[in-house]
Amino acid sequence: MAIRLEKGQKINLEKSNGNKLTEFCVGVNWGAIEYQTTESAGFLGLSRKTVTKSHDVDLDLSCVMYNSNRQICDHLYSPLYKPEILAQFGLSAGKLVSNNNALKHSGDDLEGDKGGDDGLDNEIISVNLTLLKPEVEQIFFFLNNVGQEDFSQIPYAKIRMYEGTPTKVQSVYAEYNVVAEPQYRGKRSLIMGKLYKKGGEWKFNAIGDAFEDSFLGQTIQRITSSYVK
Ligand SMILES: [Ca+2]
Ligand SMILES: [Ca+2]
């Protein structure tokens, strides 16, 4: 049974059989905005018909890793972010694989599901904690909306941690539903949570704080200034 994460909740990465969870995926599933409109149809376009159109929603799932000096030591975010804009925030170019292959991103989805919820995550970060460089102490996962709409306009956006692979979900460990929550109205970025090492063991803290940030660089600056401990 998956844990329904509540804002601020801290959990141990321990499975029901007592084993540690070291390999898992963090995924986000979301939908494009669909709407109905009419357009001319028929011979000479003299009649009208109702059609369903969709408006792409480009959410980006990313993460940044910090060392014990609270400095960024690695990251995963879309290579589509312009390096010159990232540089203004002191950030390196985007990439989809972290050092040692410890974390891997499935790639930048620019649209969201069309034609209804397909039940699959649109962007996934696979995590293998055993491959992390020892210097990594905290890993923050966050979500940005590259488009103009806020989270409440998106039909669904669900985040989950699960065992399995990006193509096969074995067991969902924890999940939360972003757009169903009123606190996400008007917001375009979300600091989802952090993995952190304590006494040599990894734990997860669900943060769930949403902001108006329109660019990933703002969200990373916010994490660095207010969330890294
Ligand atoms: Ca995306
Ligand atoms: Ca999907």
Q: Could you walk me through the main structural features you see in this protein, from its secondary elements to its overall organization?
A:
- The chain contains two helices and 14 strands.
- The protein has helices at 83-88, 216-227; strands at residues 3-4, 10-12, 23-30, 33-41, 47-55, 59-66, 72-76, 103-105, 123-128, 138-145, 157-165, 168-177, 189-198, 201-211.
- It has 229 residues and is mainly beta.
- It has a single domain (3-227), classed as Lipoxygenase-1 (Sandwich), CATH 2.60.60.30.
- The strands form three sheets. It has a six-stranded mixed beta sheet, with no helix packed on it. The protein has a six-stranded antiparallel beta sheet with strand order 2-14-13-10-6-7, with helices on one face.
- The mean pLDDT is 90.
- The protein is globular and about 70 Å long.
- The structure holds calcium ion (2 copies).
- The site of one calcium ion has 7 residues, from strand 6.
Please outline the major beta sheet. Answer: 6 strands, mixed
Uncertain segments: none
Total strand count, please? 14
Task: Identify the CATH class.
Answer: Mainly Beta
Radius of gyration: 19 Å
Look at the structure and name the CATH superfamily.
Answer: sav2460 like domains
Main sheet: strand order: 1-12-11-3-9-8
Write down the CATH topology.
Lipoxygenase-1
Please tally the helical runs, counting DSSP H or I stretches of 4 or more residues.
2
Query: What structural class do the secondary elements suggest?
Result: mainly beta
Bound molecules: calcium ion
Overall mean confidence score, pLDDT: 90
> How many angstroms separate the termini?
31 Å
Q: Which term fits the overall shape?
A: globular
| Share of helix, binned | under 10%
The sequence of SSEs as H and E is: EEEEEEEHEEEEEEEH
